[in-house]
Design brief:
The protein is of the alpha+beta class. It contains seven helices and eleven strands. It has two domains: 90 residues, Beta-Lactamase; 124 residues, Beta-Lactamase (2-Layer Sandwich).
Length: 270
């Protein structure tokens, strides 16, 4: 793993809630240095109240494929959006710097966007959904891809053309906020299995060159599932650095999965 992007910090804790891996930019939380936090209780780094809230939220995890979110969390002087997942005995926590306030009604937004979908033709539904997602996220282009990476519907508002070349299946969301951002080192157990679930992992040099060759500075990808089975993905691109808020991304993800399920009910074969 090359590190993590600087807009997010990473924490890996074991079943005893002691820190097993930490990104160097966790120094923004104040208190002890990241290197000194290794092997120490996470509560020593983020506080006892914060660890209680985090552990309660992570108790919602029902299986290794699950993830939980918390938005606008205050750790020290920093407002963060939290994404947490579990694999085996390890708990992976990614905390990104919040870029916008909490949405007034995220679930209501999903309902409203779903209500605007007209008709039952799967391709029309996909096309209309991509236009709504483009407006919601502010990305230059978005594509809805099937489980083989083929484009079903796409929308483009600028210079970055949609395309369907992707490696499938996509298991976890991936966000690239700034192609050229300097990676932040990870200290500790970088080979632990949960590290494969990092959404904000830094780009390798080959990935950077590939995106630069197509004038793409930011991307966002999330998988779509129906009844737990992968059926495709949404892939977004932007010509300049961009990161929409974590809660907004969650709204987009939930809406896209609703659309995929509706398409399947109306004859789409993913």
């Amino acid at each position: 793993m090359h590190g993590i992007q600087p807009c997010a910090l990473l924490l890996l804790v074991g079943s005893d809630w002691q820190v097993e891996a930490i990104s160097a930019n966790a120094a923004m939380l104040g208190g002890q240095r990241p290197a000194d936090a290794l092997g120490q209780p996470l509560a020593d780094l983020i506080g006892s109240k914060e660890i209680h809230t985090l552990r309660n939220r992570m108790s919602w995890l029902s299986k290794d494929e699950s993830e939980v979110h918390d938005f606008g969390v205050q750790w020290g002087e920093v407002a963060l959006d939290i994404r947490a997942s579990r694999e085996g005995d390890g708990h992976l926590i990614e905390a990104e710097l919040a870029v916008e306030p909490r949405l007034p009604d995220g679930i209501g937004m999903v309902r409203s966007m779903t209500d605007r979908l007209l008709g039952n033709d799967p391709l029309d539904l996909a096309d209309h959904a991509m236009r709504q997602l483009c407006a919601l996220t502010g990305f230059d282009s978005l594509s809805l891809l099937d489980r083989n990476g083929q484009s079903i519907a796409s929308v483009c508002r600028g210079q970055v053309k949609p395309s369907g070349e992707m490696e499938f299946p996509i298991a976890m969301p991936r966000v690239v906020a700034d192609r050229d951002a300097e990676p932040v080192p990870i200290l500790g157990d970088v080979a632990s299995p949960p590290m494969g679930r990092v959404s904000y992992r830094a780009l390798g040099h080959d990935e950077q060159r590939e995106l630069a060759s197509r004038d793409i500075a930011a991307t966002m990808t999330f998988p779509l599932r129906i009844d737990g089975a992968p059926v495709g993905a949404v892939h977004a691109r932007h010509p300049s650095p961009r990161r929409c808020g974590a809660e907004r991304r969650s709204v987009a993800h939930l809406f896209a999965e609703r659309v995929a399920a509706r398409m399947a009910r109306n004859g789409w074969k993913p």
